[in-house]
Amino acid sequence: MQRPIAHIAGLGVCIPTRVVTNHDFAERLETSDQWIVERTGIKERRFAAAHETVSTMARDATAAALARAGITAKDLSAIIVATASPDRPLPSTACLLQAQLGAENAAAFDIAAACSGFIYGITIAEGLIATGHGDHILVVGGEKLTAITDQNDRSTAILFGDGAGVAVVSKGARDGRGILSTFFKSDGRLADLLTIPGGGTADPISEKVVAERSHFMRMAGREVFKHAVLEMAEACDEAIRRAGVKPEEIDLMVPHQANIRIIDATAKHANVPLEKVMVTVDRYGNTSAASIPMALADAEASGRLKPGMLVLLVAFGAGFTWGSTVVRW
Ligand code: COA
């Protein structure tokens, strides 16, 4: 089938208002602003309020995306929520969102691909459109990571933040613009390097799980770092090759925002100069599946993302999973 089959017709974002700085962590954990900035590039991140959840943040982000796409919630044929921090184990956050939006014609389901979830979602949305499952699909990257992070563990607490970003993926090409390539992959042998070991059906929630705090994220940071650099590099190469473009033609690269050093290494490998790379990790930290749509919306609002640009999106996350796409914006 000839691409583009689909394009991104509208973006929206929800950024929680509470700012938590590195200094806030340094007041109660053995860490410092200097350590966090040097090792990660993060200066501050957002924490959702108690009443905010992935579905409510996604709902708030969706209004702008629908308006931008010129459609209403009733025009959506599917809602895909990529999240590692769903509102509940059952039902899907996508179904909770479907009800809040009144998207009465939409199928709704979650995908679990961690930080690569938005790229996986775009890939699935394009496939659904190609097989005749509707004209407009909402792809959400939303996270309330502060709820699944041990706030007393300095090696993870400082990294993660909350937020949601959404994209309406619509049928056809807009003036020849749209999704030119997609790539996604995984290696589940490395599952234990970044995991929530307890609280699932393999080790259901119990006093033991809570006492051991194994219902929170555990990460082997240095190992994750090494794989992130390697797999993000493969993902860049594949999306660029499949799109039939050259690295020097990329106008804007929007990588998953985990760590400035991973972003720098990925850009260097892909031969994309740093001035063409979107960076929000300093302001929002790592928001997992939400990081790419949040950064895209930020790029659009600040005038860095313009129609006609060749855009490379690339992500890596728990699983491990990784993926990429090249879009003529
Ligand atoms: N403040 C101060 N010191 C800290 C710290 C913190 N917040 N967190 C860890 N340390 C300490 C460690 O205890 C360790 O001390 P030791 O040498 O006495 O044992 C030291 O800093 C170095 O730890 P290490 O984990 O090797 O540091 P690092 O340079 O690899 O940086 C990360 C740690 C987490 C920033 C880095 O590994 C990373 O970003 N990994 C990828 C994480 C990621 O992106 N995950 C999501 C993937 S989508």
Task: Provide an overview of this structure.
α3 crosses α4. It is globular and about 55 Å long. β4, α4 and β5 form a beta-alpha-beta unit. It has eleven helices and 13 strands. It folds into two domains: 171 residues, Peroxisomal Thiolase, Chain A, domain 1 (3-Layer(aba) Sandwich), CATH 3.40.47.10; 150 residues, Peroxisomal Thiolase, Chain A, domain 1. It has a five-stranded mixed beta sheet with strand order 1-7-6-4-5, with helices on both faces. Strands 8-13-12-11 form a four-stranded mixed beta sheet, sandwiched between helices. The protein has a two-stranded antiparallel ribbon with strand order 2-3. It has 329 residues and is α/β, with parallel strands linked by helices. The structure holds coenzyme A. Coenzyme A binds next to α2, α6, α8 and β12.
* N-to-C series of helices and strands: EEHHEHEHEHEHEEEHEHEHHHEE
Second CATH tier, the architecture of the largest domain: 3-Layer(aba) Sandwich
Oligomer: single chain
Name the structural class.
Answer: alpha/beta
- Can you identify the CATH class of the largest domain? Alpha Beta
Report the helical percentage.
Answer: 25-40%
Give the names of the bound compounds. Answer: coenzyme A
Are there runs of 5+ residues with pLDDT below 50, and where? none
Gap from first CA to last CA = 20 Å
Counting DSSP H or I runs of 4 or more residues, the number of helices is 11
The largest sheet has its strands arranged as: 1-7-6-4-5
- Rg from C-alpha positions? 19 Å
Give the CATH superfamily of the largest domain.
Thiolase/Chalcone synthase
Number of domains: 2
Q: What is the fold named in CATH at topology level of the largest domain?
A: Peroxisomal Thiolase, Chain A, domain 1
Sheet-strand content, in percent, reads: 15-25%
Characterize the main sheet: 5 strands, mixed
Mean pLDDT: 97
